[in-house]
Amino acid sequence: METVWDWITVFTFAGLATLLLQRSAEEEPRDHLWQYAPPAVGCALVNYVGNEGYHAPAAVIFVAVVAYIFKVLNVPVPFARK
Question: Any stretches that span the bilayer, and where are they (predicted)?
């Protein structure tokens, strides 16, 4: 845990794992296990690219990972108007 990318990706992955555990305990799961693979791999890619010094591509990939989590996994957007 030496860089900012380490911290960002670990927190994102921890949130993703928490979401998986919470939803897997539901009577009727809303999503499938394979849907968690792209953002998990994305976190690893963001960490690798960011640690190699390519900060702009890492930021773009990170935004894509977060967008995937909110869009595909149907996580409600915080502070959104209804």
Answer: 54-73
Contact partners, residue 27, CB within 8 Å, separation at least 6: none
Q: With b meaning 16 or more CB within 10 Å and e meaning fewer, what string describes 42-80?
A: bbebbbebbbeeeeeebeebbeebeeebeeebeeeeeee
Asked if residue 35 belongs to a domain, the reply is: yes
DSSP one-letter code for 82: -
Tell me if 76 is assigned to some domain: no
The predicted model scores a pTM of 0.88
Q: Would you say residue 82 lies in a domain?
A: no
Nearest to 44 by CA among 67, 24, 16: 16
